[in-house]
Amino acid sequence: MALEFKLYERTERTELGTVAELTGVGGKIGLLPTNFNNPEKRVVIIMKKADGTSAQVVCSSNVSNGLRAKEITLSQAQGFPIIEQITPDGEIINIVSMPSGGALVEFNVTGEVAEYQAPAFDPADLVAF
């Protein structure tokens, strides 16, 4: 299989607003315990407006992992943006994402490559003999 180079095209994304802005004053957010307690799934946040209408949105893997590890609180997640993203297949998905930290980080390729030195170890450090 060959490596195929083509022009990089960023997936079309639109920031819809934060969880709190879209839920609105008087609304509530909730979690489903069965979903939250299953680390093989992404966390789903249920957003319920004051008028009783609701929507569910999936969290990114970073947000899901942070919520489960208690590194991100629900209060903090309310300030995270919901991104509408169009997949290459044309499907529209909405994701609670970490606040943006910037664009793609690029480095110039200079032709100079540092040699990697694999760490040496003593097998006795792994198992008892």
Which blocks of ≥5 consecutive residues have pLDDT under 50? none
Structural class: alpha+beta
Strand order of the largest sheet: 1-5-6-4-3-2
Overall pLDDT, averaged?
Answer: 83
Helix content: 10-25%
Q: Please write the string of helix (H) and strand (E) elements.
A: EHEHEEHHEE
Radius of gyration: 21 Å
DSSP, total strands: 6
Q: Into which percentage range does the β-strand content fall? A: 15-25%
Secondary structure tally, helices = 4
Distance between the termini: 43 Å
Shape: extended
Largest sheet: 6 strands, mixed
Describe the structure.
With 129 residues, the protein is of the alpha+beta class. The chain has a domain at 13-96. It is 16% helix and 25% strand. The chain is built from four helices and six strands, in the order E-H-E-H-E-E-H-H-E-E. A six-stranded mixed β-sheet has the order 1-5-6-4-3-2.
Please outline the helices and strands:
Elements: E1 13-18, H1 19-23, E2 28-31, H2 33-36, E3 44-48, E4 54-59, H3 61-68, H4 74-77, E5 81-86, E6 92-96
Parallel strand pairs: 4-6
Antiparallel strand pairs: 1-5, 2-3, 3-4, 5-6
Please name the defining characteristics of this protein.
16% helix, 129 residues, alpha+beta
